[in-house]
Amino acid sequence: MAQHIFITATNTEIGKTYTTRKLMHALSARGVRVGVIKPIETGVQNIPEDGALLLQDLKQLNPQAWALDIDDIVPVQFALPAAPYVAKGDASIDWDAIDRAVEAMDAICDVCLIEGAGGLLVPVDAETDMIDLIPRYNAKALLVAHCRLGGINDLRLSLEALKQRGIAAEWVLNCRQDDVGFDETSRPWFDTAVPGWHTLEDDIERLCDALLL
């Protein structure tokens, strides 16, 4: 079976899809056959926008994915831009469709990147939070964090949630141009408390080393 890496984040709009795409290209450059799944996407009007980007990259990087379509990448889709628990309304999450999509992707890849929706404790249904998908698919977690004020707290809370579940995880900072003030307000803590921390733009190769078995 392919190795599974579950990409999650400290909240929504942190850069999960951007990170997933960066990893796809970096891993492929190493000769790794990459696969990708976004099990659930909400806010879908015509096609899943995140899923379409992932499918575009997948077809470019893995020739065995040529016949796949968007439903193979995003098996569960909802129109309302909200947590799946809310977006699904009275519907049920089709776990069988997600399981089949992961199994099919495993057949054509060495490493399957599974991108979550929102943060770790986003509710999916009455019994499941997003964090529960990580052990469900026997995945290693990659937590993407932001560089804005408040990022330290957001990161530590998410890492604590992963630790409490016994989930192996790496984390990376996705510092964007509008994340102002990082060097003054946050970097001193990172340099002291977690030396050797990664940024997505500067440390993608070291991140790949840490994620691969």
In short, what is this structure?
The chain is α/β, with parallel strands linked by helices. It has ten helices and nine strands. Helix 1 packs parallel to helix 2.
Task: Kindly list the characteristics that best describe this protein.
213 residues; alpha/beta; Rossmann fold; 5-stranded parallel β-sheet; two-stranded parallel ribbon; 10 helices; 9 strands
Overview of the molecule:
- The chain has 213 residues and is an alpha/beta fold.
- It has helices at residues 16-29, 49-61, 70-73, 84-87, 95-106, 133-136, 151-164, 182-185, 187-193, 204-211; strands at residues 3-9, 34-37, 40-41, 76-77, 111-119, 123-125, 128-129, 139-145, 169-173.
- It is globular, with a radius of gyration of 17 Å.
- It is built from 10 helices and 9 strands.
- A 5-stranded parallel beta sheet has the order 2-5-1-8-9, with helices on both faces.
- The chain has a single domain (9-109, 117-211), classed as Rossmann fold.
